[in-house]
Amino acid sequence: MNKCDALIIGGSAGSLDVLLKVLPELNPALSFPIIIVVHRKHGADSLLPELLAGRTSLIVKEIDEKEPILAGTIYVAPSDYHTLIEKDRSFSLDCSEKINYSRPAIDATFQTAAEVYRDKLVCLLLSGSNADGVNGLISVKAWGGTTVIQDPQTAQVAYMPQQAANFAKIDYTLAIEAMAEFINLLS
Amino acid sequence: MNQELVVISDEQVEILLGDLLEYYGYDFTGYSKASIKRRILRLYGLDKQLSFAEFRYKINNDTAYFKRFVEQITVNVTEMFRDPGFFKTLRDTVLPKLGTYPLIRIWLAGCSTGEEAYSVSIILKELNLLHKSLIYATDINPAVLEKAGQGMFAMSQMKQYSENYIQSGGTKDFSSYYTANYSLAKFSDELKSRIIFSTHNLVSDHSFNEFQLILCRNVLIYFDRDLQHKVLSLFDESLEGLGYLALGSKETLDFSPLARNYKRVPGEKIWRKVS
Ligand SMILES: C[S@@+](CC[C@H](N)C(=O)[O-])C[C@H]1O[C@@H](n2cnc3c(N)ncnc32)[C@H](O)[C@@H]1O
């Protein structure tokens, strides 16, 4: 696999538990950024970064608009905005229409990142009950990136990774226990 | 399913933006690229253009289509009492401070279809300040302003808006502000009576008055840093001493050299001009 310049993890229902299991096992000296886009309730804002920060010594922060994307940091997409990736490897936020009933939409981040990071992008889609992220994975593949899904059999809600498996070309299908090691080896 | 794979390259985006500037005087070159490209791709996908050349030709030669283009590439999503906590601070802290002025001038830049302007108007009315306030609500997009002037919003939104209103500290019966007309809620003329809707382009138009309060929420996120600085200077020029500047929940004055002349209202994206 190519050197990884960014890992983006998307998820919906049932994905938080996965993140809470995976984060503690991550190498604290990651050589790339991790961007987390998960659906959450309107207004439940600042809680998620805090919750995740408790599980890792990596810096965890909610994304600010126009913020440069740096290695070794875990970025969490804010609720009620789409997170887009700019050519100069910074974030833009956008409050346009929901996509797949979701804002943030995983598709929006996967798709804009696909063009920017190309073959140095890895996108991982976790448990969830809608098909957000599937089109994104198709774009990631089209731009030469690496697509990964949580093994639907290990997902609390299999629909999202299953849809991805049905419609996109998936490079790796991982059980929860295998994820941390996979990510650490991307460095 | 993979509509998004329809590709317009970055160079083609630059070409379109160059045309708009040259033929129509609309300058979108300082907008965040990822967002504007997405909007263009979306429109291109929606309208099933056959080729980029035809798309470009139509924008440059068909004024109706050019209008549609501007309407579609700006993001007009808005709601009443969006971020209720913000409106609570407006109600409890900011507007009472302005209550001592004989005339309160408010500029609401990037007002979209008007939901925010009517929200401010409701609070002013409840604080008994509406009669001596003037809200200048402006936007680049004439189509949204026309809608704003009608003061009619989807009935299906009212439950959400009413909840937002209550969370923002409202205590009245929200439905007393509108009359239901089939699927539309028409807001009272009194609320509209102190709002002036007009076009204003933040990129190219100048300051047109001095205000005690400027709101510009969820507009700067679409601009790159340079354009943000430029627009923030425009606001600074247009704001009286001790006036307030309110930005969207993810926007900030922090990176601007102007920040040192402002003091932030704790917990909110509101800054007071102190020098
Ligand atoms: C997402 S809406 C924000 C609406 C409202 N302020 C809110 O926060 O809910 C952004 C608005 O900014 C307007 N806008 C974009 N570029 C502009 C410009 N150069 N000058 C004035 N308004 C602009 C758009 O037309 C759109 O109506």
In brief, what are we looking at here?
The complex is a heterodimer of chains A (187) and B (275). Chain A is an alpha/beta fold.
What does this 3D model show about the protein?
The complex is a heterodimer of chains A (about 190) and B (about 280). Chain A is of the alpha/beta class and about 190 residues long. Chain A has one domain (about 5-185): Methylesterase CheB, C-terminal domain (Rossmann fold, 3-Layer(aba) Sandwich). Chain A is built from 6 helices and 9 strands. In chain A, strands 3-4-2-1-7-8-9 form a 7-stranded parallel sheet, sandwiched between helices. In chain A, helix 5 links the parallel strand 8 and strand 9. Chain B is built from 10 helices and 10 strands. In chain B, the strands form 2 sheets. A 7-stranded mixed sheet of chain B has the order 6-2-1-7-8-10-9. Chain B has 2 domains: about 5-75, no CATH class; about 85-275, 3-Layer(aba) Sandwich (Rossmann fold), CATH 3.40.50.150. With about 280 residues, chain B is an alpha/beta fold. Chains A and B meet through strand 6, helix 3 and helix 4 of A and helix 2 of B. Bound molecules: S-adenosylmethionine. S-adenosylmethionine (SAM) binds near residues 75, 76 and 203 of chain B. Chain A: Pfam families: CheB_methylest (PF01339). Chain A: Its EC number is 3.1.1.61. Chain A: Keywords: Chemotaxis, Hydrolase. Chain A: InterPro entries: CheB_C, Sig_transdc_resp-reg_Me-estase.
